[in-house]
Amino acid sequence: xxxxxxxxxxxxxxxxxxxxxxxxxxxxxxxxxxxxxxxxxxxxxxxxxxxxxxxxxxxxxxxxxxxxxxxxxxxxxxxxxxxxxxxxxxxxxxxxxxxxxxxxxxxxxxxxxxxxxxxxxxxxxxxxxxxxxxxxxxxxxxxxxxxxxxxxxxxxxxxxxxxxxxxxxxxxxxxxxxxxxxxxxxxxxxxxxxxxxxxxxxxxxxxxxxxxxxxxxxxxxxxxxxxxxxxxxxxxxxxxx
Length: 241
Description:
By secondary structure, this protein is an alpha/beta fold. It has helices at 2-7, 12-16, 21-28, 36-39, 117-131, 143-151, 153-156, 164-177, 192-196, 202-225, 231-240; strands at 57-59, 68-79, 88-96, 102-109, 132-140, 181-185.
């Protein structure tokens, strides 16, 4: 395998004609001489980075002590980097006025061991319930969260259900808050055309778009705290094509 990558004269024509010269140049570097991928053709994955811990970052000039009430918009985000354990996600929640303008909010990285878009979406709602007080009208663009809310405790926390652990926290918080909480669906990434044609409202468009922006920032925070081990995976894919 070393002959294929580095210096064998009989392989020079094939090597020089390889479409990805970046990977060839990397294999020829002195500091890569013992890299199992280039020496033996074996892609050895580096140890996975630890999962980001739950962290809350506040939006606006607030000290984090405000209550979440009224019109609230939540969202989740996720980026894939090849391996499942390298996925990173974030969540966000924004309190808006009646016109959809953001008043304050919070966001952060998704601490789930194997983050998905759904765990981020549901975590955002749970974080609101932890800091909220009725009346609360929580808007999410994730239909599964709304379906779970409507289906009830038994259906969402049953054996084998996705995110049953988060749903248990969800229903415990709902019981603690009492009446006055509602969760509704809003259109994700709505535009002014959607507003004009009745698929969204101005309040929903502005609120959801703001939550989306900060959910992405939560994902960026997760990447900064726990950088994915994506390069060895990308090198292996490139080398074997």
